[in-house]
Fold Amidase signature domain containing protein.
Amino acid sequence: PLHGIPYGLKDIISVPHYKTTWGSKSFKDQVLHIEAWVYQRLKSAGAVLVAKLVSGSLAYDDIWFGGRTRNPWNIEEFSTGSSAGPAACISAVGSETVGSMTLPASRCGVTALRPTFGVVGRTGVMSISESLVVPNSSFCAPTTPFGNESMVALEFIFHLFNRISLALSVEVQRIVRLFWILLWEKIQMISHQVTLLSVILF
């Protein structure tokens, strides 16, 4: 369905035989022999990876060990955000924790589709935040010139099992939280009863 369509991946997304530097000088020669979920899905759909795109150092801001990513429409300005590289490209997959996709996309005039956390598999992707407690935990998302193209890309990187497992994980967390609340209330009630008993006896 995406046969022959070129695209780029943010340089925190691992692809075998490609450097995955995470935008950091400490990892500038790093090669991870892992196929990220999004890469696997796009490859199976026929899309052609043509470049790994600049990421801010450790997926933070637009400064990396090679400098800063400039806005392709005005090279006097910077793209901003750790997904500055994907935003400066026409067709790419980036990631976001807090504004890393949406801010540079708005500056570079492309559409960034920000899916719900867990919709896209993050296997093989460096992540700042893994916690479900954080509302904006890291996730992958496509950037394209138009919104309908982003929807097509999302259809192929959608991870049904990941979404189901996330929903189950959230439900398990809710049950565990409820258990601890009930346990704490029970402990407080017993403590109160012991206090009353000690007052009566003494």
Notes: Residues 131-139 have pLDDT under 50 and may be disordered.
